[in-house]
């Protein structure tokens, strides 16, 4: 396993409690849209075993051509040790990234794509949308639906409806409106539904999609394959 040590080049205040840490691209480090990485703080590998409290699984919110690795995360007032340390870091501080992989690359199957996310889960989808804008091959259209009760919606420049590009974007601040919209989108029985958020959020979305007749193979989750199978084993008869 190769560990890439790199420096924070910029810290962007996305909202009151969301920051994007822009990291220098280490030589030889590559990734694709929808990628996640293990993001670790200094000292995580100082002992005989890795200190897992200093490691988090994070989505990369940028594409390689942006020449920077973006890590977008919410840091609340009451937070974990990891987030508390992260909040104190400054431009020039070093962090580590390793085990980078994409579970949700953009599928190009001549279908409509629906991106369903909660809060900062939108960071996972930003690269998919940018990749689609650059090359729309074999994607009919993309619709993004995000729920964020804080109302501090993220990446509103990227996630702005663009009819000429066959891209539409919706934001909602409550679950009732959100799931009503999901039901409407699920009327497309051939569409591909990407879902990113907490495990509870994934389960609720899968339940709604399956009840509307969406098949498990149409649902994409940012999880390892064996975890995906567990999530999609939802029993409609229950």
Explained architecture:
With about 240 residues, the chain is α/β, with parallel strands linked by helices. The protein folds into two domains: about 5-100, Elongation Factor Tu (Ef-tu), domain 3; about 110-230, Rossmann fold. Helix content is about 20%, strand content about 30%. The protein has five helices and eleven strands, in the order E-E-E-E-E-H-E-E-H-E-E-H-E-H-E-H. It has helices at about 80-90, 120-135, 175-185, 200-210, 225-230, and strands spanning about 5-15, 20-25, 35-40, 55-60, 70-75, 95-100, 110-120, 140-145, 165-170, 190-195, 220. The chain has a six-stranded antiparallel beta sheet with strand order 4-3-6-1-2-5. Strand 1 (about 5-15) and strand 2 (about 20-25) form a beta hairpin. The longest helix has 13 residues, at about 120-135. The radius of gyration is 18 Å and the shape is globular. The mean pLDDT is about 95. It comes from Virgibacillus halodenitrificans. This is Dihydropteridine reductase.
């Amino acid at each position: 396993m190769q560990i890439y040590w790199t420096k924070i080049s910029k810290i962007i205040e996305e909202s009151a409690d969301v920051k994007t840490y822009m990291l220098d691209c280490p030589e030889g480090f590559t990734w694709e849209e929808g990628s996640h990485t293990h993001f670790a703080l200094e000292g995580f590998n100082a002992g005989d075993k890795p200190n897992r409290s200093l490691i988090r699984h994070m989505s990369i919110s940028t594409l390689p051509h942006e020449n920077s690795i973006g890590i977008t995360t919410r840091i609340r007032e009451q937070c974990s040790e990891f987030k508390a340390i992260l909040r104190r870091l400054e431009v020039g501080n070093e962090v580590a990234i390793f085990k980078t992989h994409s579970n949700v690359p953009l599928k190009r199957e001549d279908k409509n794509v629906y991106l369903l996310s909660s809060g900062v889960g939108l960071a996972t989808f930003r690269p998919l949308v940018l990749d689609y804008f650059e090359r729309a091959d074999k994607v009919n259209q993309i619709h993004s639906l995000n729920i964020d009760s804080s109302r501090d919606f993220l990446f509103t420049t990227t996630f702005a409806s663009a009819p000429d590009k066959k891209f539409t974007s919706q934001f909602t601040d409550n679950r009732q409106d959100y799931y009503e919209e999901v039901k409407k989108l699920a009327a497309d029985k051939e569409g591909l539904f990407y879902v990113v958020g907490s495990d509870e959020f994934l389960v609720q979305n899968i339940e709604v999609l399956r009840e509307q007749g969406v098949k498990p193979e149409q649902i994409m989750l940012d999880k390892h394959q064996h975890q995906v199978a567990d999530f999609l084993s939802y029993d409609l008869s229950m």
